[in-house]
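Review this:
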Amino acid sequence: MKKSIIAIIASIITFGAAAQHTDAFIKLRDEKKTHPRIVGITFPGDADRLQMYNSIYGHGAVIENPWVAYRIYMDNRQSLDLYVKASPRLELDETNFYTTPEQIENGYGCDVLWAGKSIAAGSFRGFQNGEPVTIDTVAFRRQFVVDDHTVSVYDKEWIFNGHPINMSQTYSMNPYCRDLFVEVKLEGYTPDDMFCTGIQKLESMNQGFVLPDGVAASWGSNVPDKNHPELVEQVGLGIVVDPDNIVDVEETDLNYLIRVRPDKNGIIRYKVIACGDREADGFKDPAKWFEHVKSQK
């Protein structure tokens, strides 16, 4: 009995520690600019994509650990966008991806990635006719905060290759490493269905690779806010895909792609790794970054 009590106390302490160093939320954009937190939001499949995107403060669910943060866009792209911090802490509840110049001067992080039409930082896509495709036609789409270190995205009856697929994406973080862990569960797919993930090439001075074992990395610079071309961010991206899911890999003009299929349980797993040179004690050159990403497989 005494051991059980000690175990319960230990688990509470461990959860409490994690709760202080991870955060996940969805905030509504409202006319009074209070931006209240909500647990989840669902849109019908015929909802206007731009209205969905703009109804959320930050354009989608946000998840962070001490080093980095991601937002998952609330639209048909469901892209992963990246935020890098200058020093390890939680700060997204204050900046919400919209860091002010004053906050940057005071040591806050900021949005560091311009995705454009790329696959960004480990976004999940279908794959048709040699190209990644977004999640366009659904019965409804939902984002939900599971807890302070997990968010989920659910697409009901995604019409892909002419048939409906129910898809759950789970994104989780812990306070002990910078990684974002991704699990995609698919129901209703066929053996002919192909999917993909990967990482983008950076706009300027890109270096990178994609390996047959499902590891890819890139390093370079970009301008995440086109209204401020003077703010150039140096970024490192990486991805490691579960070997059970890998079909093949490809380098394209925009991306380092990994084509994937679900395992026997209908699941695809991978983790996304990212950094930026605005981190005071982070990675500062591509060689060390590439070595780190390769060590994660």
User: Anything to note?
Assistant: The radius of gyration is 19 Å. The chain is about 15% helix and 40% strand. Confidence is low (pLDDT under 50) at residues 1-19.
